[in-house]
Amino acid sequence: MNRIKIGILGATGIVGTNYIKLLQEHPWFEIVDLAASPRSAGKTYEEAVKVKWHMTIPIPEDLKNKIVRDVQDFNSIASELSFVFSAINMPKKEQIKEVEFEYAKRGIPVISNNSAHRWTPDVPMIIGEINSEHVNVIPIQQKNRGYDKGFIAVKPNCSLQSYLTPIFALEKAGYKVDKIIVTTLQAVSGAGYPGVSSLDMIDNIVPYVGGEEEKTEKEPSKILGSVGETGIVPDESIQISATCTRVPVTDGHTASVNVKFKDKIPSQEEIIKIWTEFKAEPQKLNLPYAPSQPIIYLDNIDRPQPRKDRDNDKGMAVTVGRLRKDNVFDYKFLSLSHNTIRGAAGGSLLTAELLKAKGFLT
Ligand code: NAP
Description:
By secondary structure, this protein is of the alpha/beta class. It has helices at 14-22, 45-49, 61-64, 93-105, 128-131, 138-145, 160-172, 198-201, 212-223, 268-277, 281-284, 306-309, 312-315, 341-357, and strands at 4-9, 29-36, 69-70, 83-86, 110-112, 152-154, 177-186, 226-227, 232-233, 239-246, 253-261, 295-298, 318-325, 331-337. The structure holds NADP nicotinamide-adenine-dinucleotide phosphate (NAP). The site of NADP nicotinamide-adenine-dinucleotide phosphate has 27 residues, from α1 and α14.
């Protein structure tokens, strides 16, 4: 089968290198273009990525000598490129917005990890298991902006799926959620490379991660929203209060969640049954990177743990544990998912597979 030719913008960063690992031998997609900042442009990939390659596999032979392109060198974009994953970091969000718009305008769909376009109303923010129907805003976006084949789709903040997937599964089963209080314990890889200094992280917890609490509280409303005439209409029916911290863990964002239901309250057994039986469109479509069981519940009193559970089902499953009654709200639990896989490269790879299955990527 002829694989779809794709590019990675920000190929030298933490998320970019994760794409390279995950896309090795992908049945549908083949990497043909690697792009990064002007610092890396013109170098071979091996030279550009040097000390920043932290994957557990060596740099793939066919990419080592590929010359890295400047993300903003639009004239050298290969004509064979079908779409790009974007994992760029630039000083200003406006710059990222412009770069991503430029690719879309040139007919190249962009599937982005960046927060720049998350609140652009006609850009879908997708978690495959929650709102796959939001792909239907893409024709609206193309019409609004006069794009032919190009469009932008984004994934949410890297810790969101840890708590929102279990919450969504309960809502879908008919148990409407009123309020949640969530405290995230976020891994250092979430800050990119080189990230937070070792002197700040070793033997320590940093009680503030810039911008994360706002994203944690606000992004669910767009994800749980519906497709309107000009874009996504947010659903603000769940009140969320968040505290986000950085902890000395390499990969895997944990969330401690307290939940209060609107009216009907499920039993503990029902909640665990709902979670373990939860399946959604990526599973029904049998997408290559979909976890077979999106939510795994562990009975062990001391789980989930990042080191033991972040890689469950290719790093794509959300692992939940310690469900118990809450004296103030109704229940509390802990949930965990891999931030650079499920929360970044793997999550957006799943979105790309969904978009291909629905005919948006050719
Ligand atoms: P990173 O390790 O700092 O990598 C940043 C990438 O952007 C590198 O490839 C870098 O290229 C490129 N870049 C930097 N300045 C640029 C410029 N002026 N023009 C073009 N490219 C430029 O960051 P990361 O952790 O991979 O994150 C990438 C994006 O994904 C960010 O928006 C981040 O918020 C988001 N994200 C990250 C995670 C996570 O867990 N890490 C999760 C979800 C979303 P050079 O090597 O040439 O500098």
